[in-house]
TrEMBL record:
Positions annotated as active site in the UniProt record: 376 (proton acceptor), 461 (schiff-base intermediate with substrate)
Domain Copper amine oxidase N2-terminal, chain residue ranges per copy: 73-143
Record flagged with keyword Transport: no
Species this chain originates from: Irena cyanogastra
Post-translational modification: Topaquinone (TPQ) is generated by copper-dependent autoxidation of a specific tyrosyl residue.
Protein name per Swiss-Prot or TrEMBL: Amine oxidase
Classification lineage: Eukaryota, Metazoa, Chordata, Craniata, Vertebrata
PROSITE patterns: COPPER_AMINE_OXID_1, COPPER_AMINE_OXID_2
Cofactor note: Contains 1 topaquinone per subunit.
Length: 753
């Protein structure tokens, strides 16, 4: 072999070795993919949580087919139904009675029958009405029973039904026809022929029971941005109470501070030159007030939360478990998220924790704004919980769950990925202490929390609903408001009702009040209510009798009656208020859970208001009543369109019954007053706009249960703190040298619109 050949081969060998070294070094620098270590499974009989499970899409379809074949009346698909038709409005789970469920869960009793609740609008009857049927057993229905009279004491009047999408479509067509009667005015005021204007409903609809007369506010519509910030000053009052759409009428027109009998009259005044017109340009694209399109290109990515060994929680069917917690979750299409059978360390703490209602009450000097009291349950808090955006609405690696609903159509729909579950590191110690005297050590525990979240879009507002479960045994419930403000056209003394946020836009003041039901079962069903607060007593110093001191002492009181346990809104409440068990802990105190409310609520409607009873739950920041199967909810979706004769009036729940050693329910109101300002454009931010409450163990345990957490950290001056066996923090440098397995980004939230 020639020398030249040897040198060539040697060069090739060296090049190959160099390439292999580079590959190996690169592979060494590239983190490995994180390996999933399954969390420990909590003991619970398989399938027990399904007693609370939302209906499947197939079960909903079975209910629809059964009703179509068994009621003996023609049923029109609600998406096409006229007011004079019969239709299925919505279908949901009929939650079994608590006694039946507890016999099944705790005493080995029979599984309760699985049933659905179906709500039908009967317009094609001599006396049109709303009827509710329980249909079962599922998945193969064989019976139905009318429960309307049992629940409400009689048939529900037809005018109380929520407005359907089809009805809104017919109203819009009427308004468009009326707008054509004022072509020159529209061209001058709005650069419009009416077709580029969009309507926004108000509610309630009138002044007395039986009314179905609604103010609609008109806005410039610009694709890709929120029209809610572009009012044109025009509002119309439509009477849509007649069963025949042809009989609906436009009753009144409002423009820039003045009222007119019709759009024709408005046009006449404009032509005569007697109408003061504010000439608005059609908003253009990204320059429009309220555009959310990014103004800068994407920057470097921010911090990413991930689990080096996979999620430490487990989701199976409708149940999630996490470090001693067990929670069953679901979604009502109207009232939104609902949790059942919340247990910690195997003991039930809460039987039911559910959202009841969200009230948004506005002020304005325009008719639409001043008359608006939205009860969002009637629009569909759960139904309008759309797909969550991975990495923004929830952590990228969260678990996402689909929800099914059937409303205003005979075909079930699915909101994919509309509920998320994740473990959240709050970057705050749950507890900690650094000892710098006698002995030197550090002890602490990260505040990691399990979060169940969903987000509802109710027209302009987005509500973020959070339910959080802490290692200390505490439950935290929180709601944040974001989205677009609603606005009125700025005119006259508009700033008496808000702030100007655009050339012709008044951000109108309003309050958000949210109501929850909390059925606590603290160490059993039978509980009492105890308050504790501080007082001062003036005493002589025991060691110096010529001097006196102010000594704080604890005042305890066991409340006996419901009236004592109804705490008015915005009135100071006892600082400690607890559901107490008859059984003591190790130290002789009643095992208890404390309710701690965090709220900045506005003022409740005056009790002499004609519609106040429909939202009478808002009188109280907290009311505790005896639990009754016939009082499942604090309000009704039918209250929105007839608040003057409410179908359910919460005030009637409070009738001074005994609340000592009874099965009790806490009804909690939280909220805040919102006066919109410039920084609410384009959207209200969540910072400072969150309220909620805690359920905290109070002598329920013998010590803080988080001391058993495997995440606990203890460092001392005489140990090798860098050793992996010494603390979980020392292991992170080896355990977390991996890259999370991120699924490709996808969003299909627009598919069901």
């Amino acid at each position: 072999m020639s020398l030249k050949t040897v040198l060539i081969l040697l060069g090739l060998a060296l090049a190959t070795i160099f390439a292999l070294v580079c590959v190996l070094l690169t592979r060494e620098r590239s983190p490995r993919t994180c390996q999933h270590v399954p969390p420990e499974q909590e003991d619970m009989e398989d399938g027990q949580s399904l007693v609370f499970a939302d209906l499947t899409a197939e079960e909903m379809s079975q209910v629809v087919r059964y009703l179509q074949g068994q009621l003996g009346v023609p049923l029109v698909d609600a998406s096409r139904a006229k007011p004079w038709d019969n239709c299925i409005a919505w279908v949901d789970l009929q939650v079994p009675a608590k006694a039946e469920v507890l016999r099944f869960l705790d005493a080995g009793g029979a599984r309760p029958a699985r049933e659905a609740l179906a709500v039908l609008y009967f317009g094609k009857q001599p006396e049109p009405n709303i009827s509710e049927y329980v249909v079962g057993p599922l998945p193969t229905p064989a019976y139905h029973r009318d429960v309307t009279v049992q629940k409400y004491g009689g048939k529900v009047p037809y005018h109380r039904r929520p407005v359907t999408g089809k009805e809104y479509g017919d109203i819009n067509a009427l308004i468009q026809r009326e707008l054509k009667k004022a072509p020159r005015f529209l061209a001058a005021c709005c650069e419009s022929d009416g077709t580029n204007l969009v309507i926004l409903t108000t509610a309630p609809r009138g002044f007395k029971s039986g009314d179905r007369v609604t103010w609609f506010v008109l806005f410039h519509n610009v694709a890709g941005t929120g029209y809610y910030l572009s009012p044109v000053g025009l509002e119309v009052l439509v009477d849509h109470g007649d069963l025949h759409v042809s009989q609906w009428q436009l009753h009144k027109v409002f423009y820039n501070g003045r009222y007119f009998a019709s759009t024709g009259d408005l046009e006449q005044e404009f032509v005569a030159g007697t109408l003061e017109v504010v000439r608005l340009k059609q908003p253009q694209g990204d320059a429009v007030l309220g555009s959310m399109k990014p103004r800068r290109p994407p920057g470097s990515p921010g911090p990413l939360q991930f689990e080096p060994q996979g999620p430490r929680y487990s989701v199976r069917n409708n149940r999630v478990t996490f470090q001693g917690w067990s929670i069953t979750f679901g979604m009502n299409p109207n009232t939104g998220p609902r949790l059942f059978d919340i247990r910690y360390r195997g003991e039930r703490i809460v039987y039911e924790l559910s959202l009841q209602e969200a009230l948004a009450l506005y002020g304005s000097n325009c008719p639409g704004g001043m008359s608006t009291r939205y009860l969002d349950g009637s629009f569909g808090i759960g139904r309008f919980a759309y797909e969550l955006v991975r990495g923004l609405d929830c952590p990228y690696t969260a678990t996402y769950v689909d929800r099914h609903y059937l409303a205003e159509t005979d075909t079930p729909k699915t909101n994919q990925n509309s509920l998320c579950i994740f473990e959240h590191d709050s970057a705050l110690p749950l507890r900690r202490h650094f000892s710098d005297s006698q002995s030197f050590y550090y002890g602490g525990l990260r505040r990691n929390t399990l979060v169940i979240r969903t987000i509802s879009t109710l027209i302009n507002y987005d509500y973020i609903w959070d339910f959080m479960f802490h290692a200390s045994g505490a439950v935290e419930v929180r709601v944040h408001a974001t989205g677009y403000i609603s606005s009125s056209f700025f005119h006259g003394q508009g700033t008496d009702y808000g702030n100007r946020v655009g050339p012709h836009t008044l951000g109108t003041m309003h309050l958000h009040h949210i109501h929850y039901k909390v059925d606590l079962d603290v160490d059993g069903q039978l509980n009492s209510l105890e308050t504790q607060d501080m007082e001062y007593e003036f005493v002589k110093d025991p060691w110096s009798t010529q001097n006196t001191m102010e000594r704080p002492y604890l005042r305890r009181e066991r409340l006996q009656k419901e009236d004592e346990a109804a705490f008015p809104l915005n009135v100071p409440m006892p600082r400690y208020l607890s559901f107490v068990s008859p059984h003591p802990n190790k130290w002789g105190h009643p095992r208890s859970y404390r309710l701690q409310v965090i709220s900045f609520a506005g003022k409740h409607l005056p009790t002499n208001s004609s519609m106040e009873r429909s939202v009478s739950w808002g009188r109280y920041q907290l009311a505790v009543t005896r639990r009754k199967e016939e009082e499942p909810t604090s309000t009704s979706i039918y209250n929105q369109n007839d608040p003057w004769t409410p179908t359910v009036a919460f005030a009637d729940f409070i009738n001074n019954e005994t609340i000592t050693n009874e099965d009790l329910v806490a009804w909690i109101t939280v909220g805040f007053l919102h006066v919109p300002h410039a920084e609410d454009i384009p959207n209200t931010v969540t910072v400072g706009n969150g309220v909620g409450f805690f359920l905290r163990p109070y002598n329920y345990f013998n010590e803080d249960p988080s001391v058993d957490s495997s995440d606990s950290v203890y460092l001392s001056s005489d140990q090798d703190v860098g050793a992996c066996g010494a603390s979980p923090l020392a292991c992170l440098s080896s355990v977390a040298t991996c890259a999370p397995r991120l699924p490709p980004f996808h969003f299909g939230g627009f598919l069901n619109l």
